[in-house]
Amino acid sequence: MQFCDACGSLMHADGDEMVCSSCGETTGKDAERAEAFVSTEAQSDDDVIETEEGANFEGKPTANDVTCDDCGHGEAWYTIKQTGSADEPPTRFFKCKECGNRWRGYS
């Protein structure tokens, strides 16, 4: 994170230079400063928990203590995600191994 020397507002990257969101001040090309920033392009997504419709649950842990409301099958893949505040229990997202139905469970 970089702040503008002129007005103190947050700056954002625009190509090789940083530009102030408020006053438009630029830092110009600064190779040393640019190396200090972390690019998200190099990060892997193998630890990301996918919960949307197209998510691939295969290979995730399985739960045998659940029953699918659509087909009655008793086994589902699941992922856990903290959807509330830290003092609340996490939410488990399930996908039926038989029919692919998705649902969430709250502890």
What key phrases describe this protein's structure?
four-stranded antiparallel beta sheet; 2 domains; 6 strands; about 110 residues; 1 helix; mainly beta; two-stranded antiparallel ribbon
Spatial gap, N to C terminus: 37 Å
- Total count of strands: 6
Radius of gyration: 22 Å
Helix-strand sequence: EEHEEEE
Give the mean pLDDT. 78
> In terms of structural class, how would the helical and strand content be classed?
mainly beta
Shape: elongated
CATH architecture of the largest domain: Single Sheet
Helix content: under 10%
pLDDT < 50 stretches: none
Question: What report would you give on this structure?
Answer:
This protein is mostly beta strands. The chain folds into 2 domains: about 10-40, no CATH class; about 60-105, N-terminal domain of TfIIb (Single Sheet). The chain has one helix spanning about 30-35, and strands at about 10-15, 15-20, 60-65, 75-80, 90-95, 100-105. It has a 4-stranded antiparallel sheet, with no helix packed on it. A hairpin with a 2-residue loop joins strand 1 (about 10-15) and strand 2. It is elongated, with a radius of gyration of 22 Å. The two termini are about 35 Å apart.
Summarize the topology.
Elements: E1 11-14, E2 17-20, H1 31-36, E3 62-63, E4 76-81, E5 91-96, E6 102-106
Antiparallel strand pairs: 1-2, 3-4, 4-5, 5-6
Question: What is the gist of this entry?
Answer:
The protein is mainly β and 107 residues long.
